[in-house]
Write the structure tokens for this entry.
Amino acid sequence: MLTELDTIQTEALAAIRDVAEETALEAARVGFLGKKGRLTVAGAGMRDVPAERKKDVGQKLNEVRTAITSALEEKSAELIARRDAAAFASIDPTLPGRPLPQGGLHPLTLVLDEAVRILRRMGFALAEGPEIESEWHCFDALNTPADHPARNETDTFYFENGKLLRTHTSSVQIRTMEKEIPPVRIIAPGSAFRRDEIDATHLSAFHQLEGLYVDRGVSLADLKGTLEYFFREIFGSKTEVRFRPHFFPFTEPSFEVDLKLHAAGRAAKWIEIAGCGMVDPAVFTEVGAKRGDAAYDPDSVTGFAFGMGLDRLAMIMYGIPDLRLLIENELRFLEQFRG
Amino acid sequence: MNVSLQWLSDHIDISDYSMTRLDELLTFAGIEVEGVRSLPDHLVVAEILSSEKHPDAEKLSVCQVDDGSGTPRQIVCGAKNYQVGDKVPLALPGCVLDAGDGRTFSIREGKLRGIDSLGMMCSAKEIGLGEGEDGLLILSSSLVPGTPLGEVFPAVFELEITPNRPDCLSHLGVARELAALAKKPLKGLVHHGVSTTPVKSAAADEITLSSETCPYYTARILRGVKVTESPAWLKAKLESIGLRPINNIVDLTNYVLFETGQPLHAFDLAKLDGGIVVRAAAEGEKFLALNGEEYELSADDLVIADRTKAVAIGGVMGGEDSGVTETTTDVLLEAAYFAPAAVRRTGRRLGIHSDSSYRFERGVDPLQIAGVSDFAVQLILELAGGTADPELLVAGAAPAGPKPVALDNDYCRAVIGAPLDDGTIEEILSSLGLEKEGDAWAIPSYRLDLVRAIDLVEEVARVHGLDKVPSRTRATFSATSKADQFYDFLRSVQDRLAGLGFYETRNLKLVSAAQLADDLATTHRGMSPVRLKNPLNDEQDYLRPGLIPGLLASAARNQRFGRHDLRLFEAGRVFTATPKGEEIEHEHLALLLTGARVRRSWADSKPSLLDIHDLRGVLEQICPEGLNFVTIEDPRLLCACRIEIGAGKKAAAIGLAGIVPPARARELDIATPVLVAEMNLKKLMAARRGDPTHADLPKFPGSSRDVAMLVPRNLPAGAVADFLRAHPEPLLQSFELFDLFEDPEGVKLAKDKKSLAWSILYRSPDRTLESHEVETAHAKLLDSLRSGLHVDFR
């Protein structure tokens, strides 16, 4: 019987080895291990084995079953793996990806968002105000003389009811101080409007970012440190920043900020990027009169303000040569900023 | 303002300052140097002595030139526009010329095609004297060879003087500023504050002042002057700053203006009919100015007149018929003060901007008017002869000079944020001509801008320089504002849309009247678009009432460049006016989709077109709170839908969606359906659920049943959904439309019917439902659908 078992094992393993398909493997399993399979049938012969040999034969029977079972499993795994591989064999992974729609943000949004992220880390909160403004918020409260040229109808858009389109986001300084008491530390991105013909460097509607910090003891040193930090975060820690004295009605002292920047392939050049200064005490006085309290008493608080053109910042950051590209919304342009 | 360096050197010795250093000095004092015209060294006048063809180069000539050294110099030249005997600029070896773009090149001795060339003859462009024509710059024949060209064209700064510094609108003023900055003395007067001429109060028939806008008027009579060409030095001075010489009297008044900042005017006495009357113009009074233009004046304008007619617009411009000409022998020289606001008003209204009005409208030094008159009279007598009346005729009084200003040095230090010592502060103020008087500072009469302590702080900060102030960084904590919350919400919407394949656009906020027809945002009766009073042109005369007009324009533009598959969005402010005329600003979001659903590729070579269900799918992505389209009638759209968030009584309308009428799309050359939606972002934000609240996961399985219902084709699926949502069955957990079948041929289904197949999920939170419970609930639902919506089941 032991010999027979050896023979079964040899034949079974050979049969399994030569199997090429899963159905044949199943047939082999049934042929050897099924109810009428050769091993099953041989196993039935255990009854006739003398008692003293039952143990040896039983052991042999188990060994043979185990060998055949594991050969079957091994072969089965091999056949399944072969089938799986065949199922994917014809795939060409070098084909271009199945296209999904691609989109992106406007470069101005990207610039604004970078600025906002930096300034928020520096403790500024956002503020906003109307774009259709009163002359008081846009000019009077900002210490702009009644006959200042900026108020001309040739320069500023007006409405029949006397309101105007704000010419700068500085009006949000006033809007904020009307509502909030110091310390005030805000940034206000938004649209501003000037009566300019649209060309490569002018838009009748453009974007600014305004900043205001009012507190006790705010100084030019704070203004300088704040803007240096901000521009170095954007343009790199080695960026040179300089402050040129200038004049704005609503700040005193006032400065223009230049950055020394490299355009591609050119020598580094000073580029004007922002205006800033200490809030003119006349602005606090005007706000105080409107509020009817002493929250902005110019003898107790000082503040700095700054403003910059976001469109210009985008031009500088991305090397955009013509502002009109920013309002034409061509995919050929927008796709370049997909990020 | 153009400032000649040579002219400045009449007042201050700045020969040790290079142009670059001067530029920096002025720039960091707040005087912007907009341009510099300066000729390099080793650039001289040369006379061309001979010119012969280059033996080996068709286009070159070999010239011998006189460079003033006595020995002819050989130059190879490519220009053709000269003749032998012409005087031209010659760059000698060592000369450094500007190559543009911030680069320079040096002139060296060399060979051109084998022939020695010992320098370069230059065009106007090559030496920075203008864009000019090609070819050599031909100079005046009177120039002497060897003269440095810098003497012929002295260096000039083009300065931008900020409006608060009218005292710098003269060479004397700029010299004063430089003296303070460079810590150098002035060679002569600080200003013409002293007059030695006796003053005579003018009689009424000599000068009458009848307007507050001219508080002070002086006149000096000169007789027997000879009007001629100006001497060379005077002409050169005026030409150096870009003025055209006219005659000695006119040139002198111009010279004095640019020298002192005080505008003067010379009248031909013979053309005046009686004394001077300073009065308001008559309404509609006509005036022929010396620029040849006739102006119609208003009662708001000030004129200088004689008994019968206006002879000048006060402080702005003289008249064509009363000025000094070659026949003039007697002159009335006006030196006056005109109120800044009035001059500005008149200049602006008439559109005249003269050198005089520019200074009067910013404010002239009130205390040097008589002194400047003296100075001018002296010059006229020297150059034109004649005699001056011994007295200065004066009417009114000059406005008072600035009052003393108190400055607490601690305040100064606090604003600047730097530990400046008292000495430094006081040294700076003194250098600017201020004088300490006790606690206060006396202000020079030309510094009309120094009125408050902060004005003095500005002077200290400006002269000290911010570069010397240590930077400080300190912050205050800021609470999240409403604007912060909105910004973050908007950013999340922007990012989500970009991720869904949309490009963000930003259109101009000003639109044309024609574009208003594309607007979808104005939905309430009585609301109207906001029109500008003074638009720039009729392409931009309204504020956008909504975002669709801009998006359609952007879509049309992209179509023109062959980009047919578009997913665009814009977020931004829109503007409307209430019936009462009150403007309202809203934050809106709009989407536009058109063209293929996916990009054509190997995976889908004939992609289907985007439809309104794509639009809704996108909106469902950006409003996960549950969104409904409610069909409405709106002539501006096909398939018009109101976008609602929430259901039933809590439903909030947030905007509009639909298909742009194909006729309009075709006008824009868009052949595919254009799907648009516009909504109010703040409403969308308000409808957004707050922080998520965790709900326990269901402990028991649900059981679903499918139902295919046959309904009229025109019954909206939304109506069925509403019905299901309202069905009062506590076990009904959720439902989903998983199949829609229509047969336009009417074969498998009647043409006027459609089949909607829903999967309905039943579940109980506290037990596994028995099969019969589900069947009972489902049967009730089917009954209810049958009786409530009259649907049949397949």
Observations:
- The mean pLDDT of chain B is 92.
